[in-house]
Amino acid sequence: MEVKQIAHLATTIATTATNQAIGIAVMKKAMDVQASSATALLEALPPATSASLPSHLGQNVNTTA
């Protein structure tokens, strides 16, 4: 291998590693934003109340249907 080829290979490897690190950092940030958005949506939901349903509903599951 010539010196020029070795230098080119080393530069390519360094560039690839940098690009991968940037991609992973962006992906982690996007996942953090999605997690905080999902948490905010869940916290915005009103609490579930079963007081409006009759007491016999929700006690059995029909597994033959």
Task: Please characterize this protein's 3D structure.
The protein is mainly α and 65 residues long. 65% of the residues lie in helices and 0% in strands. The longest helix has 42 residues. It is elongated and about 80 Å long. The termini are far apart. The model has no long low-confidence stretch (mean pLDDT 89).
Globally, the shape reads elongated
Secondary-structure element string: H
Percentage of helical residues? 55-70%
Count of alpha and pi helical runs: 1
| pLDDT averaged residue by residue | 89
End-to-end separation in angstroms reads 71 Å
Key structural traits:
single chain; mainly alpha; 65 residues; 1 helix
Indicate the topology.
Blueprint: H1 3-44
Short description:
The chain has 65 residues and is mainly α. The chain contains one helix and no strands.
